[in-house]
Specification:
Elements lengths: L4 H7 L13 E8 L6 H7 L7 E7 L10 E6 L7 H15 L4 E5 L3 H6 L2 E3 L2 H7 L18 H13 L4 E6 L1 H16 L5 E6 L17 H22 L3 E6 L6 H10 L3 E2 L2 H7 L3 H17 L5 E6 L2 H4 L1 H17 L9 H9 L4 H10 L2 H9 L14 H28 L1 H8 L9 H13 L1 H6 L4 E6 L10 H19 L5 E6 L9 E6 L4 E5 L3 E5 L9 H16 L14 H4 L4 H7 L1
Parallel strand pairs: 3-4, 3-6, 6-7, 7-12, 8-10, 8-11, 9-10
Antiparallel strand pairs: 1-2, 2-13, 4-5, 12-13, 14-15
Helix pairs in contact: 3-5, 3-21, 8-9, 9-22, 11-17, 13-15, 14-15, 17-18
């Protein structure tokens, strides 16, 4: 593999980890736990793994002769910076305990497990990928283990490879898979262990024991660098409004963290939109008012950060989407693709409530309405992530500002030159006007110049998503991920199953980090998809918590005073103040 200079230098980096993991450990059990919600239902579904205690590792003077074991590892779901270091941490932890232990990677995610596609990860392979981004060491996919047929197939594959434990590295759905699989193995009397690791750049897999999901730190730093570059360009050209959509389908953690790192003129937080019951037109008006206010201050530019999942948090659009999902997925009342384009919107409207019909056919751009009807997943549901929310908002703001400018023009004609208005309304072209009329119109247009400045608006749109998923992990993510992997190896060696690897106290120096495990059932609740399904509860932005409060305290100032920050690229070498800082979100939450 050809390597860049940066890759060669990063290969030399030795991740820092909790001091407790550098010695023999013993697992200390805390109190029994309960699920975050729906306790009776979760306990009935997971009777063998429910209520297990939180585990913390403490130093031990005992010398344990660990047997050689085989462990499997899966990368599941979307990529996140640091996944390779989780695998390196598992590998090193196993080898430190017994050099004869072996690690097998299942190729292309859970699908590889079901197909029995695996390869042994040896030292020379692991060393190629230390401190690198991406999941390319074994690949990933989004296959879900759905039923006992899948579980039995997975068991058969693991038995054939003589695998004693399986580590699933993924987000909430992937770790839900880990929880279900651990319960199944316990239920049938299998001693195969299952451990999860918290991954998602979206930042919505966290709680008191899981401080952050890996990849969030790096992705936010990558996005913030580019946002800072755009803001510097913005402040240089002074003529563009940049609408920047950021990853975050289910929560606004990325947008909020990037706002704290870069100080944009506006950051929309989906959770606040939902709490306040904001409408699409209300959001557009908010941006329009900011544009006008800045224009009056001779600032014809700005930046707006938008979470990817915003549109589902707008109550009226969420209602429309649910109606469309019911209509298109369950009733199968129509097949949109079989309807001529010029009839599509009218046909869909017949199946909507009056409120949704008005929104769908009048207030949404036709392109978005068509997208809502035509772009559906395999279950018939609307693919909301494909909607270009940043363009939707920019286009609607442009329409409103143009309407306001035209209204000003009409008002001037009405109050100053009624004759001009009559000529215009009669549709008489200016080349047929008298010279006197032409001069008067020229005078009116000159007087309109200040109003044109008032409503000036030149938008640019961006979506930052894949750019951050496979970046070279920051020092924080390199250290955190390696520690998560090493912790996972210790959970396996101490006989745990149904746990998620947990590393806490990460705003402190790494040797003070706390290593242990949290029962996955503790994070579970019931969601309707469309039937009742046990899943890990997503962590949304809390409007009463420190990160949002920090943004709320400064947003009026940032809206007008251009207090832009330019974070620059991720730094790997130098002072820890420059290289090892966690996200602002984490520092505020742990303060």
């Amino acid at each position: 593999m050809t390597k860049s200079v940066l890759q060669l230098e990063r290969a030399k980096y030795c991740p820092k980890m909790p001091s407790v993991l550098k010695q023999n450990v013993v697992a200390i059990d805390g109190k029994k736990t309960e699920s975050v919600a729906d306790r009776d239902e979760i306990q009935s579904l997971f009777p063998h793994t429910y209520g297990m205690p939180i585990v913390t590792f403490k130093p031990s003077d005992d010398i344990v002769d660990y047997p050689a074991i085989n462990v499997g590892v899966i990368l599941s779901g979307g990529q996140a910076p640091g996944g390779h270091n989780v695998i390196a941490g598992i590998f090193d932890g196993l080898k430190e305990a017994n050099k004869s232990s072996r690690l097998f990677g299942f190729l292309l995610g859970p699908g590889g497990l079901l197909k029995g596609n695996a390869k042994e990860l040896t030292a020379d392979i692991i060393d190629e990928y230390r401190n690198t981004g991406g999941f390319d060491i074994i690949g990933s996919d989004r296959t879900k283990l759905k039923d006992e047929t899948d579980f039995a197939r997975a068991l058969d594959v693991l038995k054939k490879l003589e695998i004693n434990a399986l580590v699933i590295i993924g987000g909430d759905d992937s770790n839900t898979n880990a929880c279900v699989l651990a319960e199944y193995f316990k239920q049938i009397g299998s001693d195969i262990q299952v451990i999860g690791c918290p991954k998602t750049i979206d930042g919505d897999l966290k709680n008191e024991q899981i401080e952050t999901s890996f990849g969030f730190d790096t992705a936010c730093k990558v996005y913030s660098e580019v946002i800072g570059n755009i803001q510097r360009d913005c402040n240089s050209a002074k003529k563009y409004w940049h609408f920047i959509k950021l990853m975050g389908r289910s929560a606004s953690h990325i947008a909020l963290e990037c706002a704290l790192q870069t100080h944009p003129n506006l950051c929309i937080v989906s959770e606040e939109v939902k709490q306040e019951g904001s409408t699409l037109d209300g959001l557009v008006s908010q941006i329009v008012n900011l544009v006008i206010k800045r224009n009056l201050a001779k600032k014809h530019f700005g930046t707006v950060l938008i979470p990817e999942g915003l549109i589902e948090f707008i109550p009226e659009i969420d209602k429309l989407i649910k109606e469309l999902n019911t209509t298109l997925a369950e009733k199968i009342a129509i097949d949109p693709k079989s309807i001529p384009e010029n009839e599509l919107i009218a046909e869909v409207c017949k199946l909507l409530s009056p409120e949704s019909r008005e929104l769908y056919s009048v207030r949404l751009p036709e392109t978005v309405s068509r997208q809502l009807a035509l772009d559906r997943d395999a279950h018939g549901n609307v693919q909301v992530s494909l909607i270009e929310t940043e363009k939707l908002l920019a286009d609607k703001v442009a329409v409103v500002l143009k309407t306001l400018l035209n209204s000003e023009f009409e008002y001037r004609l009405l109050t100053e030159k009624k004759g001009m208005l009559e000529l215009k309304n009669k549709g008489i072209k200016e080349d047929r006007w008298s010279q006197e009329d032409k001069d008067e119109m020229k005078d009116i247009k000159a007087k309109m110049k200040p109003f044109e400045d008032k409503y000036r608006f030149s938008p640019q749109t961006h979506f930052f998503g894949y750019e951050g998923r496979c970046a070279a992990p920051s020092n924080y993510d390199s250290d955190y991920c390696y520690s998560l992997g090493y912790t996972a190896s210790r959970l396996i060696l101490t006989g745990k199953t149904g746990y998620m690897s947990s590393v806490r106290n990460t705003t402190k120096p790494a040797d003070q980090w706390v290593s242990g495990g949290i029962p996955i059932t503790m994070m579970m609740n019931i969601e309707y998809r469309p039937k009742a399904t046990p899943v890990i509860q997503k962590a949304l932005v809390k409007l009463d918590a420190a990160p949002f409060k920090e943004y709320a305290a400064h947003r009026k100032d940032w809206a007008m005073n251009d207090d832009y920050l330019y974070p620059g690229p991720i730094q790997f070498n130098g002072s820890p103040e420059l290289t090892d800082q966690p996200t602002i979100t984490l520092k505020l939450e742990q303060a």
